[in-house]
Amino acid sequence: MSISTAHALLRVALPVPLRREFDYTCPLPLPAPGCRVSVPFGNRSLTALVLSHPDDSDVAIAKLKPITAIIDQIPILAEAELKLLAWATQYYLHAPGEVYFQALPTLLRKGETAAYRSSPYWHLLDEQAEVSTQAIKQQQALTLLRQGPLSSGELQIRGISGAILQALAKKQIIEKREQVPVPNDWRDTALIIAQDDKPRLTTEQALAVSVIQGANGFTPFLLEGITGSGKTEVYLQIMEAVLQAGLQVLVLVPEIGLTPQTIARFQQRFSLPISTLHSGMNERERLDAWLSCRDGSTAIVIGTRSALLTPFARLGLIIIDEEHDTSFKQQEGFRYHARDLALLRAHQLNIPIVLGSATPSFESLHNAASGKYQLLTLSQRPGTATVAEHVLLDSRHVQMHAGISPQLIELLGQDLAKGNQVMLFLNRRGYAPALLCHGCGWLADCERCDAHFTWHRSPSRLHCHHCDHQRPLPPACPQCGSQQLIGTGLGTEQVEQALTGLFPQYGIIRIDRDNTRRKGSFAQHLEGIRNGQYQILIGTQMLAKGHHFPDVTLVAMLDADGALFASDFRATERFAQLYIQVAGRAGRASKPGRVVLQTHQPEHALLQDLANQGYRHFANSALQERQAAMLPPFSFQALFRAQAPDANHVQSFLQQLVQQLQPQLPATVLCLGPLSAQMERKAGQYRYQLLLQANNRRELAGACRLALALIDTLVSARKVRWSLDIDPAELW
Length: 732
Ligand code: ADP
Ligand code: ZN
Ligand code: ZN
Prior knowledge:
The structure is a single chain. By secondary structure, the protein is α/β, with parallel strands linked by helices. The chain folds into five domains: 7-109, PriA, 3(prime) DNA-binding domain (GIY-YIG endonuclease), CATH 3.40.1440.60; 119-179; 186-378, Rossmann fold; 389-432 and 489-625, Rossmann fold, CATH 3.40.50; 636-726, 2-Layer Sandwich (Alpha-Beta Plaits). The protein is built from 21 helices and 29 strands. The strands form seven sheets. The protein has a seven-stranded parallel beta sheet with strand order 10-11-9-12-13-8-14, with helices on both faces. Strands 15-25-24-16-23-22 form a six-stranded parallel beta sheet, sandwiched between helices. It starts with 6 loop residues before the first strand and ends in a 6-residue tail after the last strand.
């Protein structure tokens, strides 16, 4: 070793997509693992995370470069968190840098100091201030601010808009002030639980609470409870003891499940600091929330997928609501599943973890059946709430009005006349999914995808939902010059238009990605539904998840046929979950509800099963089919995806890979492909895939490692973009 005695080696993770760690030299004393340093990389300077202090390097020591600066004196990630990420790197066979940096907020990735900085917070100027009882939002804002200062962003996610804050500021009741947040130790403040909104538990709820509270150390629970059966109430009650012991609770929710109502339920019960972590936050808010988890000054964290990778000072319980939701799986870069990593984290910390759902994923049902998870069931709704009646409407030979049958129109009219709300689902936004020339049959196709343009009318445009390409509507057919361009198929805009014509006397709101893009508009629409401004609600699945609308008595799925014939073997599971979620929107309160499904396949076994026997019955028989076919969760899969502007490049890359890989694989590892993606060309890229499947994880991982090593030697790999997805949630 020619390294000077005052220097030693540092092994670091760099935010680059390479499956390796990097060594540098560093003057003594060395920064501990979990600290950031700056290092030269090529002709750039990068922020790196220290992983270990190796004795030796694969690279000649003389060739190693010295680091340029130490950023942290104290590690920003603790040993346990580093271990979790190291394990994730191994399991997902992903570039370590991308894994470790996923756990850091953007500002820390950029080298910002890991400390709170002064930023604007709203303060209450007058504790005694009162506002008119009519001004409900202003009152809510005051209630929140009595517990301590909050940023505009934190208030926004709790349903308080900038306008409300300005109004209060004008009355000199609140004021915006620059402030450095002080970590507070909430363990000193006695836990105040609002007893008056704590309902008496049902027998099933009480049993679930006592079993979970009796758990000693790591115990995974699957809380299977029909929509409205009081799962959230179970979460709230099991959190109590954990918080009382001074430990933090992490609640993971799906991407679109984090609404002001969700937070309000937790805030109402516990007057303790609650942080949220989600994609709508700005970089500073994210860092502040991250720091407050890490230093323990927040008690409850409600967040989406990435919140799972946040460091916690004293985590005592993990809850995953709607555990079946696919948004827990990251679909690009580091393709982790937050539920799977959460189980690992709970195991590592030796704490309980609760997975809740009305429609558990097949993986979780399988784990419950095999005894890995303890199953707890809530089969009834508390109080007088009833379970909805299911109606299958045969669409065959029926004259439809914008996709709505006369029978459904009548049912809608009946419920509306009684003063109730109705909800219609269609998972296709826009006016029509294709634009067709009536003269010659020309179809407006996206030039970059194997797909039709969707026709939108407000604002008018053609829009490809696969690559986001947009263009104006052509004035005439480019092929024959005819001006008779007509939409074919049905989108949410068209349903909205039709219903406006049919029921002009009622308020109509459409909820899809197009009209919820503006920050806060989704929450605003939900508020309008809740306060009765709208009676007819039209939406995509955005509307299906987890929202309480007590006056909705009828929900209808306009088109169920697509999912019945999809090629992905998971399509039926997803459809069943969506159907039950949708059905769960009806009859949540004391009014009986009805679920209507329009289909050309009223006799289809899946629909019959769901409508008459429920999700669990369907799931059990579908799981038997999966077992017979040896599909997941009875086997394990990994998917190599590859794409390039030239189809030949992609095909020859995957063919070479298969040719070299196949002979080296044990007979127990199945290798399928190359298969073209269902939509072969997307955004100008040709897409192919190779599926590996085995009955045991170790063998599958071995095969993937072999493939990765081969790819390193293939020249053809350089002409394509490829990725590896362990436990893929979908085929291309
Ligand atoms: P889930 O999370 O399973 O959909 P919730 O916890 O949201 O169900 O409960 C549905 C509704 O029933 C809520 O309005 C909730 O306040 C109420 N609720 C829950 N548990 C009880 C109970 N034991 N007694 C009365 N009402 C309850
Ligand atoms: Zn034409
Ligand atoms: Zn396109």
